[in-house]
Amino acid sequence: MHVNRKLLGLFGAFLIMLLPCFALAQGFGVSPSKVKIDNLSPGETGEFELTIRNRDQIAHNFSFTTFQPSQKQRTEKRAPFPDAGWIGFSPVNLSVPANSEANVTVTVAIPPERKWAGQNWEVWLAITSESGELLAVELYVRLLVSTSAAVGTRLNALVVAGVAVGIGLLGYGGYHYFKRKTKSK
Fold it and tell me: Which domains, and CATH codes, for the chain?
């Protein structure tokens, strides 16, 4: 029985040492590890690139998703990101050859509603190596998004310009209509 405890302890220590080796054997990295977008007005889009480095001797396929961290994991004074659908990856899946790197474009689009103004959110971007190995490694990039206090004025300016042009065209059409009507009498 004494031998079994030693053997069990040795086996446990071997597993504890071996499992991190599998994770380290997954030779890829992502940069930057943290992205901060400040003063993004609701109705506007922010864009940035992530660089995926494959340091392995074989090509790997990577997929990109979002992950909502728990309150304890989030940065102080940050709320969870309201809708993962506002974040897009181009491409969604990426093949990176051995010993090389590639970029993925991340787009953040906030809807043009006032309730999204003046907010501070956090979401994590998950980069997963899709390998057939025993252990799948997933790296996270922390995305911090702060929206400006004012809703984008570009949309408001377009509406005002459209109304002004419409009034001008109606006035011009009305003028010619009444001018032609008075000439025919």
Answer: 28-164 (2.60.40.10)
Eight-class DSSP state of 116:
G
Give residue 34's Cα distance to chain centre: 11
> Side chain identity at 170, as an amino acid letter?
L
Question: DSSP class of residue 81?
Answer: P
Structural contact between residues 153 and 42, judged by C-beta atoms closer than 8 angstroms: no
The answer to whether residues 101 and 48 touch, using CB atoms and an 8 Å cutoff, is no
- Cβ count near 5 (within 10 Å): 9
Which pair of tokens denotes residue 21?
A: 């080796």
Report the sign of the C-alpha dihedral through residues 20, 24, 28, 29, in that order. Answer: positive
- Residue 11 has which token pair? 């086996």
Unique residue bearing structure tokens 């906030």? 110
Query: How does pLDDT run across 47-79, given as a tens digit for each residue?
Result: 999 999 999 888 889 999 999 999 999 999 999
Q: What is the pTM of this model?
A: 0.66
**What is the percent of the chain with per-residue pLDDT over 70, rounded to a whole number?**
74
Residue with tokens 């993925």: 104
Task: List the one residue out of 132, 114, 125 whose CA is nearest residue 58.
Answer: 132
CA distance 156 to 162: 10
Question: Tokens in use for 82?
Answer: 């309201």
Q: Find where tokens 């011009």 sit.
A: 172
**Distance between CA 182 and CA 153 in Å, rounded?**
43
